[in-house]
Amino acid sequence: MTRATLDLSPSPGAAPRARRILAHARTEASLLLRNGEQLLLALVIPLGLLVAGMLFGDRIGLDPVAFPASVLALALWSTSFTSLAITTAFERRYGVLERLVATPLTRSDLITGKALASASIAGGQVLLVAVVAVALGWRPEVQPLPLLGAVVAAVLALVAFASFALALAGRLRAEATLAVANLIYLVVAAGGALVLPLASYPAWAQPLLAALPPAQLGETLRGAASGSVSPLHLVGLALWAAVALLVARKAFRWTS
Amino acid sequence: MLDSPALALAGVEVSLGGRRVLDGLTFTASPGVVTGLLGPNGAGKTTTIRVLTGLVPFRGEARVLGHPAGDPDALARLGLMPQSTGAWSGIRPLELLRYLANLYTHPHDVDALTEALGITAFARTPYRRLSGGQQQAVNLAGALVGRPEFVLLDEPTAGMDPHARRRTWTLIRQLADAGVGVLLTTHAMDEAAHLADHVWIMDAGRITVDGTVADLTATESLEDVFLRHTGTGA
Fold first, then answer.
1. Is residue A7, in this structure, part of any structural domain at all?
2. What is the pLDDT of residues B186-230, one digit of tens each?
3. Rounded-to-integer distance, Cα B13 and Cα A164, Å
4. What three-state secondary structure class fits B151?
5. ipTM (interface pTM)
6. Phi and psi of B199, rounded to 5°?
């Protein structure tokens, strides 16, 4: 077999920042979409819940306007927290981050690329869930200000959840992150007022849940679907996003 | 004219989990030559590479290509072949190399690189399904794709079959001949003897002896020199 001859003389140089970030985002997004477990979290579970809720939800008193908004909140939660925590933990475990550090991809490029990949997938999820929901009869009350509030809430929640995901993945071993991230996913989905409205929880639990970002996102999206948004939830999400960023900055480690 | 060193570490100390891993490590590596960093398992070779890429905090001085270790300008001019894995489990070699090539201004042609390193046959196989030696070949390609000025090769032939090992040795020699500086960490004496222009032997986080292979092996084998100067930290 003949081997190609290479000019091995040095000619290093960093590609423009935008190209580096796009290359990273594209790679992460395509790997995520190819991973069965991540697809289950990102699409199969939200779409399954949506279809079941829209077809049979009236039997258990699900609000047909609020429920698809809850599913959107769940989809955002799974992508920005659970998927990101698990993939990042295994990137550390496999030495991907250690390897990438000796390239022109700076740490801020990597974080921006990750954010872009997660945001693209979240955007795709929102679009797909919304389209399926509308096809199944969802008729939200679309008003500009609440819609803007919902978008702002989604962005702040993505930042907060993703930062906590990075903090978790940056501290625990990959297997521990896998277990803890899935456990937190289930606990928040089942009891965090993310999917079920805050009002359906016992009175004593409501103030506690209302102070946490999953409930703040769920309530904002459900409110926006009915044409109203609470500024208090937005302020809460902004505070959580700031705190989470600081925690991630302190806690994240690149090597395992 | 004397070239200034491509790598220069002086009195580098690193403690991890309360254990002193590097203990006043001092060595240099010149551009365009192969520098061997030899040491037994646990001597601190991988930690040394992490210092050079700015991944672990340290005391002392570490400069890479004229910049403080970890400086983005230096990192963009380095190529790193990690000791193990270093890639997403589901990524295909071709995909990984195209991604890495996109980070550089004048990368190698990925198809030519995969052919030169014998990767073409498994270029579309997910990384996790590759043998250890195949993963190492991909890691080596990843270190070279950006046409670096200096490469850090951490145990580069571990897991390779004799053919791949010889091919890698030839390539490392060609790299140095083309002007690329190479830091080769290994505990394979034959590899160091065959490739290194200058050898530094480290033990328990510090250099115990250094010299050219010819100097060090004037009266005894490199393995005897290695055995005599290591093992104190065990």
1. no
2. 888 899 999 999 999 999 999 999 999 999 999 999 999 999 999
3. 32
4. strand
5. 0.89
6. -120, 135
Nearest to B91 among A20, A26, A31 (CB): A31
Tell me the chain A residues in contact with residue B87 when contact means C-beta distances shorter than 8 Å. 94-96, 99
Name every residue whose Cβ is closer than 8 Å to that of residue B83 and which is 6 or more positions away in sequence.
B46, B154, B155, B158, B185
State whether A10 and B148 contact (CB < 8 Å).
Answer: yes
Residue A209, domain extent: 17-251
Residues of A in Cβ contact (< 8 Å) with B76: 12-14, 103-104
Quick one: A39 exposed, middle or buried, by C-beta within 10 A (0-12, 13-18, 19+)? middle
Which tokens in the block code for residue B146?
């950006």
Domain count, chain A: 1
Structure tokens at A122: 């979240």
Q: How many CB pairs under 8 A join A and B?
A: 132
Give the residue on A whose Cα is nearest the Cα of B89. A94
Pairing of strands B150-154, B181-186: parallel
Name the residue among A9, A11, A105 with its Cβ closest to that of B103: A105
pLDDT tens digits for range A124-176? 999 999 999 999 999 999 899 999 999 999 999 999 999 999 999 999 999 99
Query: What pLDDT band is residue B234 in, cutting at 50, 70 and 90?
Result: very low
Q: What is the pLDDT, as a whole number, of residue A4?
A: 56
Domains of chain B listed by start with CATH number: 7-229 (3.40.50.300)
